[in-house]
Structures are given as structure tokens and as C-alpha cells.
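notes to self, project folder thing:

trying the whole complex as one job this time. last attempt i did each chain seperately and stitching them together was a nightmare. two parts in total, labels are on each line so i dont mix them up again. if this works i'll redo the older ones the same way
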Amino acid sequence: MEKTKVNVAASSTEGHYVVGAKQVIDLDAVNETHLVKGKSELVTKNHTSLKMEDDCLITCQMVYNPFSKAFQKSRD
Amino acid sequence: MKKLEVLTDEQLDLIEPHRQIWLDKFYKNQGIDKELAVKQIKWLYEFCGKKEPQIMFMDSPVGVDILLATIENKGQNIRANIRQSIEQNIWDNIRDNIWDNIGANIRANIEQNIWANIGANIWDNIGANIRDNIWDNIRDNIWDNIWANIGANIEQNIWANIGANIWDNIGANIRDNIWANIRDNIGANRQPRAYYGNCSDYGWMAFYDYFQSLNHFTDYDWTNFNQFKSLLDSGIYELVTLEGVCVACAMPKVLQDAENRLHNTEKAAVIFNDGFSMHFIHGVFITPELFEILKNGTYSFEDWVKEENEEIKSACLSFIEETKGSEALYRFLSAYLKEVDTYTDKKDEKHLNGTTRGMNIGVYTLFKGGYGEVELAFVRCYCPSTDRMFFLSVDPENTNAKDAIASLYRIPRKVANEIKYIQRQGERFSTVLTDKGNEILSAMGKEEISDLVHISGNDYFYKLTYEY
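result (full assembly):
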């Protein structure tokens, strides 16, 4: 059976994909916060795949915009 | 069929040369063999139960797109609408190629509506009747360790080099960066490429080709496999398979870094025969305009600060260091930024698995300064997977590197005290909560989930395990 593959980084050029989870729930589309249920792996192009043994919460790094003086989602 | 239980020394010695043969098909390609391509495309259509197509050839994926857009638009004013996006010499080559394909019979061709894409049909037929069929017939007759060995050394190696680093990367960037700019102006849809019948097939084809070359599976009928292999041997880069029409694209020349990522600091890293080219720095696509100012040295600190994509920011610093040296990179940054504080997170040996194990891992340095009236603060850090250097913008209120880097992590406020451990992959954090934290989370509403906070540097590094 093919493993599930869900992109949890909609704003990322290459995406970060949760592979093999029982369920991936999009909790907050704006901040790109996802709840991942079941053992899985986070896969992307430019980084080593991350083994996620437990249920976990995926969040996006924020960076500071010195012009607007506010935090925004980090883009990759 | 007798089970293949062990590979002889002679057969083991064939692995590397066999891989090289398939890599050379791409890297040392001599251009498209149109006669063979026509023959094998006709076979492909017949194999998939489709009528023989009219076959057209173009020299780049963008040339393919413009040919199809010309047909879809029935020849209306394509050039005028994309003048800014395609240089004159490339356009001239594309126009000549279009003329070669449809010019002689332009009225008949352009009066056509665009044909139905049969990529799904190709997928079904090649997938089931060749790829899966070979699997079904030989998989159980090969021991697992041999399967894994050949898989890693041939299939995955070739897929990583040609499929992922080249075909996927070029395709994604044409879709995102080239087509996105012109599609609104020409009102055409970009036709998807056939999933089978392009150079991303080299990995799995080389894998089965190795087993075929052993002359062990002589009971299996390799006829269809050989026909499909001949299609790839014709030198096609990719196909657009439509009902009655197939457009084939010729291979590009590519330049890569030591890790086989598309890369060149002197010229384009991908060059197609019609002159269409693409710039990449260590696998990261950059626009021709950005490449030009990086190359001529007019790329400014302000340009860098305003760039929002962290991968591109990192690529630009890498370009400066690689072309002008570390001293130039230091001057580029130090004119505006001063080092304030460094924190080193000494990682356990087990948490270095999957990293470069380089000396930069876990070293965070806070820089502060300004540009005009804009206050700036950055944390320099290095990607543990690739050792690429990143400068991440932080609030200038930060006074130490440890809290500064932790300030970029985010977690819903209501569970911030219930973190069991944190892992990280680039711009994404994976946080495992305590049982109590999971209970709290399950009862939280949307607004509470959107209320994100950061944690202290001490707390962050106490909880951080794997970081890639």
C-alpha cells in the first residue's frame, strides 16, 4: 500500500512532506500548523529526512522583518 | 525461474560500469536521435492503445510550452505578449522550431483545438505492463540483499542525480518561475509532462536493466522493456503526450556541484539547445537578473536584506564566498553588522546522525547593526544537513545568540509549558507534547491554536534533539 504523503509547508518552494502518518490535521492554514498522528517521517529536498516517532505538532519558523518590524513566516 | 541468491564477483564488478552507462546517457548525450524517437514514440502510442500521433520536436521545455500555447491560441500574438520573458535569440530559435513543426501546414494545425492529454493512459500502461510486470515476475526470485544493493547503487543513485536533482528541479522551477510569469499573458494551460518517457525513468530502468544484463531471467519476456529502453535511448528529455500529437524535448547540458546539485557561478547551470537556460546556486534556482548582479558585483547589502527567501539569501552569500573569497563575504556583511555574541550547542553524538558532523553544527552567532534608519539583527547558523550558512533575521531587542535563535521557534501559547521535545528540519519544527499537552491541544479552538509564542533559549536548547 502506498504511504500517505502530506505537504505541511504550503508556502515552501520545495515543500516539507509528512510521509507514512496515520493522520495529518491542518490546524491553522495561515501559520501552517499541523498535528501529525502516528509514526512518520518529514521529508524535504534540502535537508535530511526527520524521523518522527511520536504524535507531534508541526510549526513554521518565524523571522523578523526589520522594515515592518513584525515577525513573518520564514520562507524556503 | 531459479532464484538469484548471490552475485558473483564478476557480476558485482558490473554494478559501477552499469551505473555509469546510464549516467552517461544523460551527461554525455549527443542530442536527440529523431529517427529512433519517432519509431519508439509510435511504439509507445500503439502499446498504450492509441492511434499513431503526429510527432513534433522542440529544444527546451519552454519551447514545448510555447509551441502548444501557439496552437492553443491559434497563433494569436504569442510573441507580443511574452516579449519581456523570452530573450530575442531564444525566441528566434523557438520560432524556427515551431515553424519546422507546424509551419508547413500551419492552417490545418492551428485550426485544431488542443488535444486531450493522455499522460494518465501512458502512466497506466507503462506502470502496469512494464514496471509492475517486471516486479511481479522477478522480485520473488532475487534475494533481498541483492535487491537492496542494486537498488541503492544503481536505482537510487541515478534517481538522485538525474531524477530529483535535475528533472524534478528544472520542471518545478519552469512551472513556478517561468510559466507563472507568462501564463496570464498568453491565456494557455501548461500541459503536464508524461510521467513515463523522460529522463526521470533512468533510475528504475537502469535497475531492471542490470538484472536483465545478468542473463539470469531468461524466461521473462523483456520485449516491451527493450522497446521502452530504446525510447529513452533516443535522447528525449521529456514528452508531452496528447491524443494524436506527441511533443518531444531534447536533453539540456547541465553543470553540477560536488553533490550533484545544479550549480554554476560563471554561467547558467542548465542550457537547452534553443538557448533557454536556468541559473542555480547549489540547487537553488535564481533569476537571470539576480545572477547578473551577483556576477557583476553590484548585488548590495540592501538587496540581500530585502530578499525574503532564506534559501536564496543563503545561496547569494555562498556565491559571494565562492567567487570572491571569504574576505569579500566578511566585508559584505561587516560593513553593516557587528558580531555581538556566540552560543554553541554541544550536541550528543546520537543527535549528529544524519548531519555532516561538521564543526559549524550548533554554533549560533548574533550580529547587530543597521542600514540607514533600519535596525538589523541576524543569527548566523549552519544547516546541519548541508553546512550551508544562513543569516536569520531576529528582533534587534535580542542581546544574546541563544535567546535570539530560540525566538524564531513557535508553539501555541496554551501548550508552551507542555513540551516534551523539539526536532527541527530547516524552517519546520516538530514538537512532541506531554500527555497533558496533547489533552490541552485537543480542546483548543482555532484562535488559541493561532496564538503562537516562543520560548527561552534555555528551554529551547534543553528540549531540542535532532536538528537537520
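what i see at first glance: The longest strand of chain A covers residues 23-28.
need to look closer tmrw
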